[in-house]
Design goal:
Blueprint (H helix, E strand, L loop, with lengths): L47 H15 L3 H14 L3 H14 L2 H14 L4 H13 L3 H14 L4 H14 L3 H14 L4 H13 L3 H14 L4 H13 L3 H14 L4 H13 L3 H14 L4 H13 L3 H11 L6 H14 L3 H10 L6 H14 L3 H14 L4 H14 L3 H14 L4 H13 L3 H14 L4 H14 L3 H14 L4 H13 L3 H14 L3 H13 L3 H12 L6 H11 L4
């Protein structure tokens, strides 16, 4: 529910009738010259020379000799009072990217049919491509005069092509001149708002859509854009106000109500969101999307019983059964009912949630150390989801890691890197396994590859800095990595712990203790507790160290870090 309906919704219309990259044959150069009269005005007298030109153009097109076809069509267009021949010449000229002859053909076309909107669109595109602001404004003015109702849609049709050509800013500037000439045209300001949003100038976009709404206050499309822009800037209150206004003006518009619902959920206004869901369901009780949203809101609020009741209603809907089963499984996981959770996850046999459900089942079994079952599931997943092969390999590596089969895990990850040598997650996972195998050269190489691409990767900085601290005496290098990580994420517990451990290795136990205790307050993990206990022990505070150890060890008697501390310091009953 955190997504925003993309502003690109306004740009999703089809492009111009013929794209410049589109081969003219896609429009259909006839296989034979018969039927030329179907594309030539029957009232036009065609002399022998014109007929020859048309036949030559057709034959040239069939032979992919488009330059010859262009010449013939252009000459014929000048002689015959039929704009469609000029149109044909324009489309071939665009395909050939012959701007000079395309402009010539376009001039002929407009001279014979000045109100043709397709011709005007081509003229606008050509003018913008050539930075001819005067011609662009002139042709847009003609479009606005001839078809004011379709002007907005017509310009939006061309927006993608303008963006592809890198001409969005210039197009905006053209519309700025148009806005001066037509200060009461809401559509011009709306189009500027759309273009400003494409240019990532959110403030300008909001300013322009506000101008559009001053002229046309009840224009829902503009209200929706205003809400989207407000949401993009994080102003959920403004987004909510805009959408509430739109919903009030059009209470039957279900899309508007769902957008408002999204804003309420993002703003954590759950009570109002529930009321809105209920109002939607009053009109349409089986609205699956709203039911699903309502269930997620109840889950967010901890109203598990209500969430389960709503999700169970979706089980009879084949399109929503999968996600309903998946979230019913998640509820059972939270309630510590692993067997019930597995039953729900296994019910998701296909659809968008099938892979996530299988992954959730494997994670659940991993936590329960039911490794035999996991191995069989991973094999099935590899066959069932070939497009998810990498993620399945990662799960297999984690299984081997959990089993202590570090070489097998290393081999799986090495195989994965053959297919995706620069994948960050695989490199990081193999680095951690390499540490277990004392392959510190591989660890350093893999983490350095990550840092070469992203120098501010905190995970890699911390892992490399901590390993150099714990497994080598290259403390100066370790400090460089850990200080960088700490500057990027000063409140991250694992980074604070690593830096504290470095201080201990540098012979500064009191300073180390300060950092380690701060890390433990933020995240009371066993490894951090073991570090604190060891530093206390080195300072002669053995009683405090043992008390801390005992309190943590009772909860996690199998933890490797605690067992290592026990082996080194407590095995002789000290």
């Amino acid at each position: 529910m955190k997504k925003w309906i993309a502003i690109a919704m306004f740009l999703s219309m089809s492009g111009c009738a013929v794209s410049p990259e589109k081969e003219p044959d896609a429009e259909g150069l006839p296989a034979k010259p018969e039927g030329l009269e179907s594309r030539v005005n029957r009232n036009t007298v065609i002399d022998e020379e014109v007929l020859y030109l048309l036949m030559a153009a057709e034959l040239a097109g069939q032979r992919n000799q488009y330059h010859l076809a262009m010449d013939a069509y252009l000459q014929a267009a000048k002689r015959v009072d039929d704009p469609r021949i000029a149109e044909r010449a324009v489309k071939i000229g665009l395909f050939l990217k012959d701007e000079q002859r395309t402009r010539e053909a376009l001039t002929v076309w407009l001279s014979k049919d000045g109100k043709n909107l397709a011709a005007r669109k081509f003229a606008v595109l050509l003018a913008i491509k050539n930075s001819d602001q005067k011609a662009a404004v002139e042709n847009l003015n003609a479009m606005l005069a001839d078809d004011p109702a379709g002007f907005e849609a017509g310009v939006l049709e061309m927006t993608k092509l303008m963006e592809k050509e890198g001409r969005t800013q210039f197009t905006y500037d053209v519309l700025e001149e148009l806005a001066v000439e037509h200060p009461n045209q809401a559509s011009v300001f709306f189009l500027q708002a759309v273009l400003a949003s494409v240019l990532q100038n959110n403030d300008l976009a909001q300013q322009k859509v506000s101008q559009a709404l001053l002229i046309q206050p009840d224009w829902n499309k503009a209200v929706i854009l205003q809400a989207q822009l407000a949401g993009r800037s994080g102003d959920l209150a403004k987004a909510r106000t805009s959408l509430e206004k739109a919903v009030k003006a059009a209470p039957e518009d279900r899309m508007l109500r769902k957008m408002l619902l999204e804003v309420l959920v993002n703003g954590r206004d759950y009570d109002d969101a529930i009321k809105l869901c209920q109002s939607v369901l009053e009109d349409k009780p089986d609205d699956a999307e709203t039911l699903f949203t309502l269930a997620l809101i109840y889950m967010q609020q901890g109203q598990v019983d209500k969430a389960e009741n709503v999700l169970e209603k979706l089980l009879s809907n084949p399109e929503w059964e999968g996600q309903a089963s998946f979230y019913l499984g998640k509820i059972e996981v939270d309630q510590q009912h692993p067997d019930k959770a597995l039953t729900w996850f296994d019910r998701v046999s296909d659809g968008n949630y099938a892979f996530d459900a299988d992954m959730a089942a494997v994670s659940l079994l991993m936590n329960q150390k039911r490794f035999d079952e996991i191995e069989a599931r991973i094999k099935r997943m590899d066959n069932k989801y070939p497009e998810q092969h990498l993620r399945v390999l990662m799960v297999k590596a984690e299984l081997y890691n959990q089993l202590g089969k570090y070489q097998e895990a290393f081999d799986v990850l090495t195989q994965a890197l053959k297919d995706m040598p620069d994948n960050r997650e695989v490199l990081y996972a193999r680095a951690l396994v390499a540490e277990r195998l004392d392959k510190l050269d591989v660890l350093e190489s893999d983490l350095q590859k990550i840092l070469d691409k992203k120098p501010d990767d905190v995970g890699a900085l911390n892992a490399l800095g901590y390993t150099l601290t714990d497994r080598t005496q290259r403390y100066e290098e370790a400090a460089k990595y850990l200080e960088r990580a700490l500057s990027l994420q000063p409140d991250e517990a694992v980074v604070i712990d690593s830096y504290g451990w470095l201080q201990f290795k540098l012979g500064k136990p009191e300073r180390a203790l300060e950092f380690l205790r701060r890390a433990y307050e933020k995240q009371p993990e066993n490894e951090i507790a073991a570090h604190i206990a060891e530093v206390l022990w080195s300072l002669g505070e053995k009683k405090e160290a043992k008390e801390l150890f005992d309190s943590v060890y009772k909860k996690s008697p199998d933890d490797e870090y605690l067992l290592e501390f026990k082996k080194r310091f407590l095995q002789n009953g000290q």
